[in-house]
Design a protein that fits this description.
The complex is a heterodimer of chains A (255) and B (460).
Chain A (H helix, E strand, L loop, with lengths): L8 E11 L2 E12 L3 E5 L6 H9 L4 E10 L2 E2 L5 H6 L2 E4 L11 H13 L8 H14 L17 H15 L3 E5 L7 H13 L6 E6 L12 E6 L2 E6 L2 H17 L1
Parallel strand pairs in A: 3-8, 3-9, 6-7, 7-8
Antiparallel strand pairs in A: 1-2, 1-4, 4-5, 9-10
Helix pairs in contact in A: 5-6
Chain B lengths: L17 E2 L6 H11 L3 H16 L21 E2 L13 H9 L2 H8 L2 E6 L2 E7 L1 H5 L3 E4 H7 L1 H7 L10 H9 L4 E5 L9 E6 L6 E2 L2 E6 L4 E9 L7 E3 L2 E6 L4 E8 L5 E11 L4 E8 L4 E4 L2 E4 L5 E10 L4 E10 L5 E10 L4 E10 L6 E11 L5 E10 L4 E11 L2 H8 L5 H17 L4 H16 L4
Parallel strand pairs in B: 3-7, 6-9, 7-10, 8-11, 9-12, 10-13, 11-14, 12-14, 13-15, 14-16, 14-17, 15-18, 16-19, 17-19, 18-20, 19-21, 20-22, 21-23, 22-24
Antiparallel strand pairs in B: 1-2, 3-4, 5-6
The chains are: A alpha/beta (255), B alpha/beta (460).
Chain lengths: 255, 460
């Protein structure tokens, strides 16, 4: 097998992250190649969301060691928006509400920024066509786009809005932070279908989840267990099923 | 916004026809009155108002005004020989200034009429023929007094008496320029009238006086804009605006206040609204060092209504002390006050809202909503609501929110590839969107542009 090159994979090496002076990640190693879906599982407080936030550079998440290489650059040294423009996307567990910001305007601005296009290079009409394609792909209604970003959205709507953003921006690496949390089973299915429609050789996906349930709908190629700031075990999809039966403690014991 | 970002900070040479000497006195008032050749009764009102000004204490309940030196101000400057109806006849330097401010262009595109005041006098005034034919009167206040003395005598000081406050007294004593508008019964002026106020001289005091009378069923939208050069010494702008909204009439008064930061902006604006009339104040406060402005309405007739939409932005070295007042004096009257303020780089914004309902009224509705957005730790926002309600059958709503712009919201937008400045702009524009979307198109564009300029001057 050829060595994974960092143009085609996000390579995280020995990542240490502290929040408010407390070390949460204690040396994480992980590789997400394009074309693969990886699941990151672990109990509450293990540091799953911390990994996602640190990769994108959320204020307050202090990297104390390690690197995250993509396209030959250490993402951890770049401002937040530049990391995004390298092609790394985070679907938030708790998306922010931005009152007064219309979804259409937001998506178009993000698209232009993400793709490095000037306003005059991509007319609103052209963007509307692109957006309609994506809405259709995700089976979402058009009325989404005239609403204010996430304001008054239900939990399920917020999660779908995140997937729509991913569909529009077409990132190379997508990190989905608990896209199933707070959703009933029908909503989980809708979100999972959306994610599945965005799988492909041009994209690596890291799905963070607490429950195996989601992985019935988004079938991962690999599963990693994060416990107390470290990846304690990696394996194929069967690892998630094993976990479902035995729980995290036992898995740790055998790992 | 830093001074270098204030694009209206330029000034012309001070070539004046006449300039009264610095400071305020009865002599100065007599001089202004004599130069204008106005009726004796107006002159008497001026002197009485000046006495009141001398007597009245400077208000201490609001922003600090102790540094305002009345002796250093020029109270009257006449910039040109006479008022013109064609821009070609306006002195070149002054015309260039208004060109740079985009006034003649806006006039062609979307205005029914324009008044352009430079220092103390209105140098250009026009009203398109279509409206003069329907009996609409749009003059500067001096012209109004000359041509419609009875109307002026009846209404001048009827909504804002000079005893109202110290600055209303000062304005009444030395007023010059401003607009006089009369819209006859049933006439709807479909496109806006605009007045533009420009201060050019150092230590200038501008005291325009505006009176708008909308007769029964009439409709008019008046827009005012204002800018000034940047000086290290203070200028003073103390206007009085009186509006009479007769039965079933509707007046919209929109302001984009963009004075430079050496201007004290101490303004009294009030409307008297009769049966089923509607007064709308749309107030954007972006400039000035200290502003005190609380557009108000007295709802005097049954079913009269007030709507206030206000946006204030307080940046480094600015105090925006704004708000609104409404007095419900008749049954079935209603008022809605929506205020949005943004404080950044150590700026301070305050909202003062007064809702008063006199005893024994039926079916009164009032709602006040003020939202504040604070961009950083150095900035500040305060809310001072006063409710004085003496009737039982009153529906009152009051809501106030304070939001910090929040790193989380910025982070969220930036993870979509959007740069920090653009992300902050999106949040701010979203915050004021509920107000801006109700503005006329050109006005909304201008407001957004000014706010974006402010944002660029600070973030990042």
């Amino acid at each position: 097998m050829p060595a994974i090159d960092n143009n085609n994979a996000l390579i995280i090496k020995d990542l240490h992250v502290s929040v408010e002076g407390r070390e949460i990640l204690k040396g994480v190693d992980l590789e997400i190649p394009k074309g693969e879906v990886h699941a990151l599982m672990g109990p509450n407080g293990a540091g799953k969301s911390t990994l996602a936030y640190a990769l994108l550079g959320r204020p307050g998440y202090e990297v104390t060691g390690g690197e995250a290489i993509f396209h030959g650059k250490n993402l951890l040294e770049l401002p937040v928006d530049e990391r995004a423009r390298e092609g790394v996307f985070l679907a938030f567990q708790y998306p922010q509400e931005i009152p007064g910001l219309k979804v259409f305007h937001f998506l178009r601005s993000a698209y232009l920024a993400y793709k490095g296009l000037k306003v005059e290079e991509f007319s609103p009409m052209k963007f509307m066509n692109l957006l309609n394609e994506k809405l259709e792909l995700l089976k979402m209604k058009e009325d989404f786009i005239s609403r204010y970003l996430n304001e008054g959205f239900s939990g399920g709507e917020k999660k779908r809005m995140e997937i729509l953003q991913m569909a529009v921006l077409e990132p190379e690496i997508a990190i989905l932070d608990e896209p199933d949390s707070g959703l009933d089973i029908d909503a989980v299915r809708i979100v999972a279908n959306g994610v599945n429609s965005l799988r492909g050789p041009e994209r690596g996906i890291l799905v963070i989840t607490h429950y195996q349930r989601l992985l019935n709908y988004i079938k991962p190629d690999f599963v990693h267990i994060l416990m107390d700031g470290k990846i304690t075990k990696s394996g194929g999809p069967e690892l998630a099923e094993e976990l479902e039966e035995t729980g995290y403690e036992v898995v740790e014991g055998i790992g | 916004m830093s001074d270098s970002d204030y694009r209206y900070g330029f000034h012309d040479p001070e070539n004046y026809i006449y300039r009264a000497k610095q400071g305020i006195s009865h002599d100065i008032v007599s001089e202004i009155s004599w130069l204008k050749g106005e009726p004796e009764w107006m002159s008497r009102i001026r002197h009485r108002a000046l006495d009141h000004f001398f007597k009245r204490e400077t208000p201490t309940w609001g922003p600090e005004l102790g540094n305002l030196n009345y002796d250093e101000i020029y109270y009257y400057i006449k910039p040109s020989e006479k008022q013109e109806r064609s821009w070609d006849n306006v002195p070149k330097e002054i015309r260039n200034t208004f060109d740079r401010l985009g006034i003649p262009e806006a006039e062609k595109k979307y205005l029914a009429g324009v008044g352009a005041q430079y220092e103390s006098e209105v140098v250009y005034h026009s009203l398109k023929e279509e409206w003069t034919e329907q009996g609409v009167v749009f003059l500067d206040m001096d012209g109004g007094l000359r041509e419609y003395p009875e109307l002026v005598r009846e209404y001048f000081g009827s909504v804002v008496p000079y005893t109202d406050n110290k600055f209303a007294a000062l304005n009444t004593a030395v007023w010059s320029g401003g607009s006089f508008i009369y819209v006859p019964k049933g006439v709807e002026v479909a496109i806006p009238l605009q007045a533009y106020f420009r201060i050019n001289a150092k230590n200038m005091g501008q005291f325009e006086r505006t009176l708008i009378i909308a007769d029964e069923g009439a409709k008019v939208h008046y827009i005012e804009g204002c800018t000034a050069p940047i000086y290290s010494t203070d200028s003073l702008h103390a206007a009085v605006v009186e509006i009479v909204v007769k039965r079933g009439a509707r007046v919209t008064y929109s302001t984009v206040q963009n004075w430079s930061k050496n201007v004290y902006n101490l303004v009294t604006k009030r409307a008297m609204v009769f049966e089923d009339g509607l007064m709308e104040w749309v107030d954007g406060n972006l400039g000035s060092g200290v502003s005190m402005k609380y557009p108000a309405a007295i709802l005097k007739g049954k079913g009269a209504r007030l709507e206030v939409l206000s946006v204030a932005m307080a940046s480094k070295g600015q105090v925006q002390d704004v708000g609104s007042k409404v007095i419900h004096m008749a049954p079935y009257t209603s008022s809605t006050i929506v205020s949005k303020s943004i404080s950044k780089d150590g700026g301070r914004s305050s909202f003062r809202g007064l809702v008063k309902v006199i005893p024994g009224l039926k079916g009164v509705k009032a709602s006040v909503r003020c939202d504040a957005l604070i961009m950083d730790e150095e900035s500040r926002s305060d809310t001072y609501p006063y409710l004085d309600v003496n009737s039982d059958d009153v529906e009152i709503g009051h809501e106030a929110t304070v939001t910090k712009i929040g790193e989380e919201k910025l982070f969220y937008l930036m993870t979509r590839g959007i740069g920090e400045i653009d992300a902050a702009k999106m949040i701010v524009n979203g915050f004021i969107e509920p107000v801006v979307r109700r503005l006329p198109m050109e006005f909304a564009v201008e407001m957004n542009r000014l706010i974006e300029l402010e944002m660029e001057g600070s973030v990042g």
